[in-house]
Amino acid sequence: MIPGLFPVCRPLLPPADAVAAYIRRSDQARHYTNRGPLVRLLEERLAVTLGLEGHAVRTTSSGTSAIEVAILASAGPADAGRPLALMPSFTFAATALAAERCGYRPLFADIDPASWALDPARLADHPDFAKVGVVISVAPFGRVPDMAALERFHAETGRPVILDAAAAFEQLLDTPALVSATVPLTISFHATKTFSTGEGGAVFWRNAEGQERVEQAANFGFHRSRETRVAGTNAKMSDYHAAVGLAMLDGFAGRRQDYARVCQLYAGLAEGRRLPGRLHLPPCISSAYVLLETPDAATLDQLQRRLLDQRIESRKWYESGLHVQRHFASAPLADLPHTADLSGRLLGLPMAPDLTEAEIARVLDALV
Ligand SMILES: *Cc1c(COP(=O)(O)O)cnc(C)c1O
User: Fold this and answer.
1) Does ligand 1 come within 6 angstroms of the Cβ of 288?
2) 108: part of which helix (H) or strand (E)?
3) What is the per-residue pLDDT across 138-159, written as a single tens digit (0 to 9) for each?
4) Nearest CA to ligand 1 atom 10
5) Are 83 and 104 in contact (CB under 8 A)?
6) 158: buried, middle or exposed (CB in 10 Å: 19+, 13-18, 0-12)?
7) Phi-psi region of 34 (alpha: psi -120 to 50; beta: other; left: phi over 0)
């Protein structure tokens, strides 16, 4: 957060006392990580909440490491024949960095302008598709793409597919059927997301053997011994982070009501004002975001400056796409017109579960 600036994101995690009640259990068990009692309890409660079998949820140390272990468990590390990971450029850096950690080179494809996500019907036409070892689709801002189409694409091509659904926790709660037996889906529990353990994440996958490989990859490639048998890392969630998640889960029904109230305020207050664009509000996207889609990039730049003049922070959450960022410049050259267009026109506005009517009015007035 920048001092003196009204923040685009103002996380609110459970109070220390609520977390401490859980941490005392770890002290009693003297088990603090390596799938301790609190991590297991969090996984179990998440599975029960979604009506899934216990193995369908495996927590990780971050949303990024969830992507990494999901890749290792489904596609394995890159090899010389299939060194590329096909993914959108319209995403947060973590998607591509996770693939790189598994040895893949990102290969960026354009998004569909309606879904903001990869179009599964067009992926196999990519000129470099023969060299693609894994496809990572993204649910931008929590907008989950057509899962059935991704499953079909996987069944028809045999290519492992992962969905980086980092911000889609609420979408999972509302539609648990999104959790697939063939396409692992990863979630982030970062403090800026709606459900948080501080840092953390999870792989959702209705595949018991696949989830065993997730556990193995997350724990140094060990399997029932201390010998590394496959590629791995340390992606384990600690019980301290699980304690935050358990306390957050206790209050999550109320949290969702808070978000619904803020969304209603945004929608209601926007109605009386002539906004220079279209508002995208939850539940179509994650409650972590409110987005203004402007008619063109120049309008967005102008609005962002105007907000800043009034000491209000706003953000292009996915910047201008990953393909123009310096670190990813070595990826095969890509012409991504829809990514370039949309990323120049989507502006993240302040969002928090406790925004007041006056605060929202201040943001909207600055836009008009
Ligand atoms: C938040 C986010 C991540 C990264 O999650 P962390 O928990 O911060 O590692 C990855 N992908 C997308 C699309 C995200 O929004």
Assistant:
1) no
2) strand 105-109
3) 999 999 999 999 999 999 999 9
4) 94
5) yes
6) exposed
7) left
